[in-house]
Design brief:
The complex is a heterodimer of chains A (272) and B (406). Helices cover 51% and strands 14% of the residues of chain A. Chain A contains 12 helices and 8 strands. The two termini of chain A are 28 Å apart. The longest helix of chain B is centred in the N-terminal third of the chain and has 17 residues. By secondary structure, chain B is α/β, with parallel strands linked by helices. The chains are: A alpha/beta (272), B alpha/beta (406).
Amino acid sequence: MSRISHCFEKLKTDGQTALIPYITAGDPEPWVTVPILHAMVDAGANLLELGIPFSDPMSDGPVIQKACERALKNDVSLKHVLDMVRQFREKDKITPIVLMGYANPLEAMGYEAFAKRAEEVGVDGILTVDMPPEESEQFLTIMDSHNIDTIFLVAPTTSLERMDKIAKVAKGFIYYVSIKGVTGSASLDISEVSEKMAELRQRTSLPLGVGFGIRDGKSAAAVSDVADGVVVGSTLVRWIAEHANNPEILPEALAGLVAEMRHAINARDMAK
Amino acid sequence: MANTMETNYYDTYPDDNGHFGQYGGRFVGETLMGAIYELEQAYEKYKTDPEFQAEMDKDLADFVGRPSPIYLAENLTKNLGGAQIYLKREDLNHTGAHKVNNTIGQALLAKRMGKTRIIAETGAGQHGVATATVAARLGMECVVYMGAADVQRQAQNVYRMKLLGAEVIPVESGSRTLKDALNEALRDWVTNVDNTFYIIGTVAGPHPYPAMVRDFQSIIGREARSQIINATGKLPDALIACIGGGSNAIGLFHPFIEDKEVVMYGVEGAGHGIETGQHSAPLSAGTPGVLHGNRTYLMQDENGQIIETHSISAGLDYPGVGPEHALLKDIGRANYVSVTDDEALEAFHTLTRSEGIIPALESSHAIAYACKLAPTMSPEQVLLINLSGRGDKDMHTVAAMAGLTF
């Protein structure tokens, strides 16, 4: 069983919702990424999403776009991201890590070279925002042969027919994009999310994560009612942006934000 | 020529998933997948619909002024002392360039799809103006994204768009040029996908855009092919067109692809020189990758990050190129070359003085390559250049190079 599946199984047994924070690797400085990841796990994160910086992040809003720019100023690219995962695994062999990014850095490294290295350093999943199932046949085969789960997005605009198609190729969990828009934009509509979750559950037994539009403990708790995992990204990255000149305080500060959301989700989980 | 050319090119490319060989495809976020399938279905339905075609033909004739003529540039021909040089006069179109051929088609499609809001990206501003023009005519809301650097160097086109009622949003991210405008337009589309139609201005983006924009622009080559046969009694020996994203070039080339004796040259912007790295010539000096919805040749570093481009011409200042050009390069059907800023500027003056035609800086790249190629050809041979746009918009840039401001 993959680390991701195991993680969701255990949370299910314990009656808990997964908290999945996202940060962009190398933002604002490369050395602080691994300490932030450890601190967030200590504060109650169950799975980690680590963004691969890309020069043209078309599906992201200004918050994550600027995070990419800060990381790229430090020349942080895919090979460095993989090395950060290697460092992280020196201390943490349990918490699953999903890399999230765009197709081109993976193409430049080569799918096979990426998958091999990712498996070696302990990456558990890959979410390629701009690679729909239609374009990922070869990618899927290679990732599968290196035990990397291929995470796919489902959006409010995804038809039932496409949901079937995505459910067939997705592994680890399915990530539901709760709003029409880029990362960090509008707030989500929980009843609409709930409806989509029900449709998805008819098509897959994979755990369902929800992201885009979750800004605080309250919205995280609301999503935990209907999802198996709550992804929080732009809220954390916005905080990093505001304190980019003071990176040494970031691990503790992000741990604080994660702890608050954990607390809100736990309170909701207990009430179920 | 490779075996690929033995089967009929037109029946082979693109395939049902928008692939031109290994290039093209649909590399977009899930939120947009529904929209690009919806667009594909609408386009498939209307492209053979006689009523749609009739409306488009009427607009192209009465509103754009088509057919655009071909013109024998006798002075240039004499001065260069080689092939007979013909210009396909896309500069005479309403709004001043070939871009309107495509925006007419896409706007009519948007109307039939019930969309009320139009967005576009623009580099030199020609596509933005052509989009704002059709939006004004159809009474649709129009938002144009333009790199902040381009807003400065194409101030006149920005004003034209505003006069036409469009909102022009300067994009401050990244290199502040065309690629960043495209990113921002895609973000807008993701957010407003229900009521918004994205009019892409070149033969790039996810399927069906590269094929659809090519079809709309192919009127250039279809007209030119019969015009040149009428004028000279034969097919041309060579075609030349400039390439940013590649829409005017594919528009000229496509109807000639099966005419294997016609040699094709696509001219990229070599900027300060290919060897300086400051250029916008992905076909000449790039490698394949994925950007803006399709796989194609890109200017990128070894980590797959897109690198900043440079060209004197805002319309060529783009790190990618349409996927069909990537295929034509690989199968050897078209040749891709480049000319520098200086050579393009010289050609700008050459055409202006010899023929009384002021070309756009983009099109000046095609003229510059013709100045190299024509003298190597014989006077019986015919060279057909796509004069894709006129130079009015470039007055400030050219004047500034001469030390003048106004």
